[in-house]
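Hey all, sorry for the wall of text incoming. These are the two entities for the joint prediction.
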Amino acid sequence: MTRRPVFTLITAAAVVFLLFPIVVVVGVGLSAGTVLTFPPEGVSLRWFADAVAYEPFRSALWTSVVVAVLATVLALAVGVPATYAIHRRSPRGRHALQLLFVSPLIVPELVLGFALFQLFMVEAGFDARTALVAGHAVLLLPYTVRVTGASLQQADPALEDAAAGLGAGPLTTFFRITVPVIAPGVVAATMLSLLTSFNNVPLSLMLTSRRVETLPVAMLEYVQTSFTPMIAAVSTLLLLLTIGIALLTERLVGFQKVFGRSAS
Amino acid sequence: MTTSATAPPESAVAADAVVQLRGITRDFGSGPVVRDLDLTVRRGEFMALLGPSGCGKTTLLRMIAGYLEPTAGQILINGADAVRTPPRLRNIGMVFQSYALFPHMSVTENVAFGLRMRKVARAERARRVREALDLVGLGDLGDRRPAQLSGGQQQRVALARAVVLRPDVLLLDEPLSNLDARLRVQLRDELGRVQRETGLTTVLVTHDQEEALAVADRIVLLSRGRIAQEGSPRAVFERPRSRFVAEFLGYENVFELPGRGLVAVRPEHVEVVPAEGPAPPGARALDGTLVATTYRGTYSTATAVVPLPGGDVRLQGVTGSPEPAPGSPVRVVLPEAAIVALDPEESE
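and here's what came out:
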């Protein structure tokens, strides 16, 4: 592609380094044999069938989906109005508020998980599913605040004034102007939140019980005792689901909104 | 508006007054930005609120539009008290500095938004939107999104969106400041044309004196929240009253002239000639020393230091060729007609 062969070589090496393990996982999942080896011993879908039929994975998947959806809704319900207030109403101490809302990003997740475990399950007596939803909502808040904040920041603050000057009341202005303007940001935040919650391990690990666990935690538990290609098969399925959500996001709003262009 | 002696009686003003501000003060907490200001906008006039940044002109405009409440004072629109009337209930069209076009709507939808809010029937809405877009020369771009338009086109959409409502007052907040120089002149003239064609009462906020001189019928020059001077563009430009107004309008020579008090002279009216040159009739000549000259193509500017009873004064003027050498004695010639006497008591 270029006249810079060294650069091209390094790039190719990096891509192989990043993608090869995934190829291995998918390959092992398709194995017909009974042990985790690569290249696989023959090709079959038996481990996929087993993974789908395996009861602990099925219930864990359901838990993961419920937790991801509810935690995302909760995080959006708190995060979007908070972002709006921070960017449009400029409250006293807005910087402190902004910092507070992104602080879950810098606290190590295991520490956060343990703190929430203490608070939710020991002190407040939440059951595991409630604790997971609440804990994940805390984890997702920074994403909802940052991503919707970015689209609000790009929008002209005079838009709302202009609408008011043209005769729109506060509610009309909010629904006809503000919401459409930040909608791509909210969609992006939703997708990012779903993915983050769905793939989370450290926080979930602290907040699960013997009967209620998320899919990644169930998988972790499974590999501690068994070592069959089924784990590779379920990993592949998880991968496909994640790619699906990512592609949907790209179709809806574009990756730039989610991950930022340069420094937004 | 500065002295009661020159203002017509209250009732006479009210007859053609669209907006009346009485004793308006606005304080954001760190001292007043607008101070006890009286101003009347008359029906059909094109007024320019001119002044340096921080003089309170945008604050004043936002109070007329209703986005800001004055800390004290009265705002009358068409004779009715409007201090607590929110923007959406004032019939005012505003063009924002950033244009504030709705990015998710087409040009047509942007222009139609205000009419929709006023529940104007569909057929009339379509007709008025078309009229407004034709007025600003965008008749065939109705389906575009704002992001697909150039800066100048966006500015025209913003103007059409405000004009289509036939507002009591059209407010323009530095509408040309985001455009490049050539486009600015073109759109400035177009603003003038649109105002003449619609007859809308218009208030333009600007820091650019050229813009104000070119389009306005009346200039109100603000300084630190007060009116420094107001009048026709010619009256303000040719007869500045105070040091502040003179300096803002480009009178670079403001000094105490013996026998005349504080005066202002534009540098392009001052001639710097060799000391032995003749003193022309009808002009004051001051002797001094040349400090520097700058070549400007069709002419050169010169800076000379002139000793006066109050101390040395640096004066700017133009000089012909051959240019006198720096350090040489020169004569600074001030035509009587170019000397403007200032009010030394007036600080702003």
